[in-house]
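DUF4263 domain-containing protein
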Amino acid sequence: MYVKYPPAVKRFTSLFPNNLLFANDIKEDETSHILNENFLDVLNSESSTERTIINFIKDNQAYFIIASILQYYSFGHHETYIFPEFQLGTSYKVDYLIVGKGSGGYEFVFIELEHPNRNIVLKAGHEGEAFRKGIQQIHDWKFWLNASFHSLHETFRKYKNPQKDLPEEFLITDPSRWQFVVVAGRRSDFSEKMYTKARDVKQNGILLLHYDNLYDKTKDILKHGSF
């Protein structure tokens, strides 16, 4: 019956009412299709930067574009929450945190956005500064999370429904529930060497994507109504 609840009821009964994103509601909204095409226009502009993209998503509340990343994972189909510019203590700020719930409970996706069209790859086809910077940022987050994840419950309490308690996944340090993503460049930037690099770092829990992946996966969400 939850699927049939009005959006306001879903938010009111959820763990993080102001951060809830529900895929079935997005499918029925023609505005979402238009926003995704506008997102592609932003990507195609040579003047766009990662800040341009962050501002576009924020100003249009097009958080489903970021949530499309969940199509690379097997959780989020029960509940999906988006936290823009999520603070890790006083040390770091994550561009987007996705919290998704599946059959195994809640999992966390920490996302770093880098430049869409500058310093993506070297002439030899290896990763350029944008991806190197993003990967280093992920390593810094991992170090912080392993030492201080237990302290994040104070941050999550600022967002949560006062009528609900935080589940233990938010209280216990469990790296098996953490995923990391770096998004930079376009499909045309991904040479065979870049795909090799992406496979290598994936073994360390880091997913490397280009921005066309987000556009394509968002189209899938809008067509099928699920993450």
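thats it. Residues 2-224 form one domain. The two ends are 19 Å apart (CA to CA). bye
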